[in-house]
């Protein structure tokens, strides 16, 4: 056996080998994909795909890593109880709800028995930076604490409040945030006043570049406000952090965090800041991607988000509990979310190396593309007068709505599959009753139009809810032609497609395919025995061509309505539609639209969007 190492195959050799495996089809065109709002993802990356042939310099991490959480509760006592449980679970960055710091006494009760020097304390000031700062300083005085004893983050985000429709007095809240930042810089070293949150844009349908652009534009606006308040950009950048919402694809989200840090460094270079400061970066799992049905799959989504946050170098990480979409979180789900981060960080050592993706051609290409598109979108926002003007004028909202519509279409056609929802739905799952607790507030004030809060699963969950509330479970008979080896693939496809809308498939045993009349009679008899009014024809192309039209005619004459056919578009499908079928259902069709029509035909009353 030769000890010589085989030479690495060239890209051209790889292309030829894969082309042969694909029966002559072009490997790049066949195996490439494009996520909604993202670049084309190639099947293979080489050094030529890396930006400028070298990795980006992302500016490094800001500091030590912390597990962040937001204790639920309506009263300081409830908040304190949940806060202590979170600290016992290993959390060290506490993001308090407004009820915890409404006044000095509330803050005292919320933080009772908390080892303050061990935590990073976030107040979530929103548009009320000055009140939050005043409250925490009054509390510090009552406790005899100095600024150096605490790590405090006010997390003012007036522009985020505008995005939520709460921009009642943006000018004064921006001035208040800037004033708080100046005070933190001059009198409270180590404290930070502002955190721009990407979640309001992400939940309105923003793609990754649009979310980063909104964060960048918010940063520009806050730097301007602080400059007007007397804090120059070189000092002001230390007063701003970002909170980025994470989707479920680990590579794109890893690139998103790397691009965030690169963009922050680029902005500082553009401002002439001689020594760039690293970005304080919080990564929170997206609630846009959470599901109410088959909520256990959310554990996998949270795991991939935590992995991306650790590999991407986030300073603070928040993972949503798997049952968060039900309203409030159970203690077990919350603890599992914390432990997911602990296992990935401490046992799997995902954070042992700073920027482990540096030099990887795929990730470098994604990062570079994302950073460039985000920078261009930020400049577009600036050309509209800045983030506030773009929001109130509707420019950014229109672009987010366009992207959201593209995403909804990808979900409806199952190009973007939601496991447990649009694919492999579990019909017999019973949802637990909704829990009160940590639901996001829907209260709005002010004249600024609020960006919508969207969830990917909502169109299918609305159908599931409607089916669950129907007086009688909606069913469809599967008129299977021939033995299972001939109808099985399309029968299974139809079963899963119907289940996505809460409709139960009742499979037929399969008909004789020798005589069209016999097959038709068997189908009609089996449908009547099933008790289902609607039917869906399932078979292979050969049986569709030979006996399909006669079976469709017989089912239609016997009252089957509506009548679907599981078949791709084409001549065969057209013949079956001409014979009397109502719809064809196939991979790539708008399944939400078809299921809505099926519900209407079966008398299932529609319901509103789940929250």
Which keywords apply here?
single chain, 611 residues, alpha/beta, eight-stranded parallel beta barrel, five-stranded parallel sheet, 23 helices, 13 strands, elongated
Please describe what this structure looks like:
The longest helix has 23 residues, at about 360-385. The strands form 2 sheets. The protein has an 8-stranded parallel beta barrel with strand order 1-2-3-4-5-6-7-8, surrounded by 6 helices. A 5-stranded parallel sheet has the order 10-9-11-12-13, sandwiched between helices. The chain is an alpha/beta fold and about 600 residues long. It has helices at about 10-20, 25-30, 75-90, 105-110, 130-145, 160-165, 170-185, 200, 210-230, 235, 250-270, 295-310, 330-345, 360-385, 385-395, 395-410, 460-470, 485-500, 515-530, 540-545, 550-555, 570-580, 590-600, and strands at about 65-70, 95, 120, 150-155, 190-195, 240-245, 280-285, 315-320, 475-480, 505, 535-540, 565, 585. The chain contains 23 helices and 13 strands. About 50% of the residues are buried.
């Amino acid at each position: 056996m030769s000890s010589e190492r085989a030479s690495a195959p060239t890209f051209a050799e790889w292309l030829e080998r894969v082309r042969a495996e694909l029966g002559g089809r072009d490997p790049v065109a066949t195996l490439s994909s494009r996520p909604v709002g993202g670049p084309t993802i190639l099947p293979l990356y080489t050094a030529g795909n890396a930006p400028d042939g070298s990795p980006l310099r992302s500016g490094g991490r800001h500091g030590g890593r912390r597990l962040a959480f937001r204790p639920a509760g309506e009263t300081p006592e409830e908040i304190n109880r949940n806060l202590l449980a979170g600290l016992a679970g290993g959390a060290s960055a506490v993001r308090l709800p407004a009820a915890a710091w409404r006044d000095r006494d509330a803050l005292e009760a919320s933080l009772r028995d908390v080892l303050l020097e061990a935590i990073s304390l976030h107040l979530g000031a929103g548009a009320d930076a000055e009140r939050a700062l005043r409250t925490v300083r009054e509390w510090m005085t009552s406790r005899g604490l100095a600024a150096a004893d605490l790590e405090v983050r006010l997390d003012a985000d007036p522009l985020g409040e505008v995005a939520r429709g709460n921009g009642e007095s943006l000018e004064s809240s921006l001035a208040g945030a800037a004033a708080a930042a100046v005070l933190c810089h001059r009198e409270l070293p180590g404290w930070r006043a502002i955190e721009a949150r990407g979640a309001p844009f992400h939940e309105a349908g923003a793609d990754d570049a649009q979310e980063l652009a909104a964060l960048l534009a918010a940063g520009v606006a806050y730097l301007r406000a602080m400059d007007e308040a007397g804090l120059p950009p070189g000092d002001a950048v230390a007063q701003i952090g970002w909170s980025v919402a994470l989707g479920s694809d680990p590579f794109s989200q890893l690139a998103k965090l790397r691009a965030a840090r690169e963009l922050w460094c680029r902005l500082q270079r553009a401002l002439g800041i001689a020594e760039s400061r690293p970005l304080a970066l919080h990564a929170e799992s997206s609630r846009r991607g959470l599901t109410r049905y088959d909520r256990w799959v959310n554990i996998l989504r949270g795991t991939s988000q935590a992995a991306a946050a650790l590999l991407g170098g986030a300073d603070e990480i928040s993972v949503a509990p798997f049952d968060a979409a039900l309203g409030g979180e159970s203690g077990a789900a919350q603890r599992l979310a914390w432990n997911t981060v602990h296992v990935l960080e401490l046992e799997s050592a995902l954070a042992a190396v700073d920027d482990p993706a540096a030099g990887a051609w795929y990730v470098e290409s994604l990062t570079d593309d994302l950073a460039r598109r985000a920078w261009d979108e930020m400049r577009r926002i600036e050309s509209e007068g800045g983030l506030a003007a773009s929001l109130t004028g509707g420019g950014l909202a229109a672009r987010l709505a366009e992207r959201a519509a593209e995403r909804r279409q990808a979900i409806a056609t199952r190009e973007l599959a939601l496991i447990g929802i649009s694919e492999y739905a579990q019909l017999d799952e019973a949802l637990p009753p909704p829990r009160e607790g940590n639901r996001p507030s829907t209260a709005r004030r002010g004249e600024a139009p609020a960006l919508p809060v969207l969830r990917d699963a909502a169109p299918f969950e609305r159908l599931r809810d409607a089916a669950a509330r129907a007086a009688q479970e909606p069913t469809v008979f599967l008129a299977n032609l021939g033995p299972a080896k001939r109808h099985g693939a399309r029968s299974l496809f139809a079963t899963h497609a119907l289940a996505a809308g809460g409709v139960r498939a009742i499979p037929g045993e399969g008909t004789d395919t020798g005589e069209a009349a016999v097959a038709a009679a068997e189908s009609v008899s089996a449908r009547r025995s099933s008790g289902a009014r609607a039917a869906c024809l399932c078979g292979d192309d050969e049986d569709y061509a030979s006996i399909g039209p006669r079976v469709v005619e017989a089912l239609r004459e016997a009252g089957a309505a509506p009548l679907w056919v599981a078949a791709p578009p084409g001549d065969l499908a057209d013949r079956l539609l001409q014979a009397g079928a109502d719809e064809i259902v196939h991979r790539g069709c708008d399944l939400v639209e078809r299921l809505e029509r099926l519900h209407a035909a079966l008398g299932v009353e529609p319901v509103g969007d789940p929250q």
